[in-house]
Write a structure and sequence with these properties.
It comes from Streptococcus didelphis. InterPro entries: GHMP_kinase_C_dom (IPR013750), GHMP_kinase_C_sf (IPR036554), GHMP_kinase_N_dom (IPR006204), Phosphomevalonate_kinase (IPR035102), Pmev_kinase_bact (IPR005917), Ribosomal_Su5_D2-typ_SF (IPR020568), Ribsml_uS5_D2-typ_fold_subgr (IPR014721). This protein is α+β, with helices and mostly antiparallel strands and 335 residues long. 40% of the residues lie in helices and 24% in strands. The chain has eleven helices and 13 strands. Strands 1, 2, 3, 4, 5, 8 and 9 form a seven-stranded mixed β-sheet that branches. Helix 1 packs parallel to helix 2 (108-123), helix 2 (108-123) packs across helix 3 and helix 3 packs antiparallel against helix 4. The longest helix has 20 residues, at 228-247. The radius of gyration is 20 Å and the shape is globular. 44% of the residues are buried.
């Protein structure tokens, strides 16, 4: 029996969250290698299982498995076949991206969509570029009515630290009505994805507040406050952040992240849940900078440290505040 295994990770925003929901805006995201694993093998019938749920399904519609089933439909379209005409398989997915039933907020729905596409690609021996995986996964989510920026999909598909410029989702959604699948996938969506190679000696620390992110209603309220001035200021700070990473300019990097943090806090103070405020304040007086990540109101925050002393002290302060370090990554070396 032929069996294949693929993996996808999560993502976190460094810069540009909320603004990225508008076409042409830029965000910086980093891959978080807390993995989701898919195993796919020949089978007499279609069987799908995820450890998020305690049951298997086939091709019959199931709301819990909608991302996986929709991704399978997309891959059938890509192959020019009906789903029922595909050679059958068993797909087993493990990795909840959570602890004690609480999600980290690092992109499980995006990850499972990309994972399913990667699994079927290897099973059917299809050579897909990272860019094509991004488009196929984004198409899948747009068809489901998802209104996210697709920045998470870009980061998870590229599995790297990236700069992402968003496309006009309403434009591509309109294509779902009047263009063929092939035309949509081949069209220029006017997005940009660029891998960033930081030139700073630093360590990223990801802290989990153990608090769920703000509600959908609150996110809608926050989004309603976004105006052109906010978008322009966020874009400027995000581009400075990217350039300072690439040029190794620590001072500009710190200043840009502080500016981004302040802009989010001024947009709506509920973004900085008390636990996220503690996470950020833990960097005060140290050679470091910290901010919220993503929609805010809970989930994760990030800190960048530039000395071993700062790294050690932030970890100590987070532990005292019951903020869990779930990931760290270093570039270069510092004293």
């Amino acid at each position: 029996m032929t069996s294949y295994q693929v993996q996808t990770g999560g993502k976190l925003y460094i810069a540009g969250e909320y603004a990225i929901l508008n076409p042409g805006q830029t965000a910086l995201l980093i891959n978080i290698p807390i993995k989701m694993t898919g195993q796919i093998e020949d089978h007499s019938d279609f069987v799908i299982y995820s450890d998020m749920f305690d049951y298997c399904v086939g091709l019959e519609e199931d709301k819990n498995y909608k991302f996986i089933q929709a991704a399978i439909e997309t891959m059938a379209l890509f192959m020019g076949k009906k789903v029922t005409d595909l050679p059958a398989f068993k797909l087993t997915i493990n990795g909840k991206m959570e602890a004690n039933g609480k999600k980290y907020g690092i992109g499980s729905s995006g990850s499972v969509t990309v994972l399913t596409i990667k699994a079927l690609a290897v099973f059917y021996n299809l050579k897909l570029t990272k860019d094509l995986i991004f488009k196929l996964a984004s198409y899948t989510l747009l068809k489901l009515g998802d209104n996210g920026s697709m920045g998470d999909i870009a980061c998870i598909a590229y599995d790297d630290l990236i700069s992402y410029r968003s496309f006009d989702r309403e434009m591509v959604k309109s294509w779902l009505v009047d263009k063929s699948f092939e035309e949509i996938i081949q069209a220029d969506w006017h997005y940009a994805i660029q891998v960033i190679k930081p030139q700073l000696a630093m360590t990223l620390l990801v802290g989990w507040t153990k608090q769920p992110s703000i509600s959908r209603e609150m996110i809608i309220r926050v989004k309603s406050k976004i105006n052109q001035s906010f978008l322009e200021k966020i874009e400027k700070a995000t581009l400075i952040c990217q350039k300072s990473l690439e040029a190794g300019d620590k001072n500009k990097f710190i200043t840009s992240l502080e500016s981004l943090s302040n802009l989010l806090n001024n947009l709506d103070q509920s973004i900085y849940h008390p636990k996220l405020r503690q996470l950020k304040e833990a960097s005060l007086g140290l050679d470091s900078v910290a901010k919220s990540s993503g929609s805010g109101g809970g989930d994760c925050g990030i800190a960048f440290t530039f000395t071993k002393q700062a790294e050690k002290e932030i970890k100590t302060r987070w532990a005292e505040d019951d903020i869990e370090l779930i990931y760290q990554k270093s570039w270069g070396t510092y004293d």
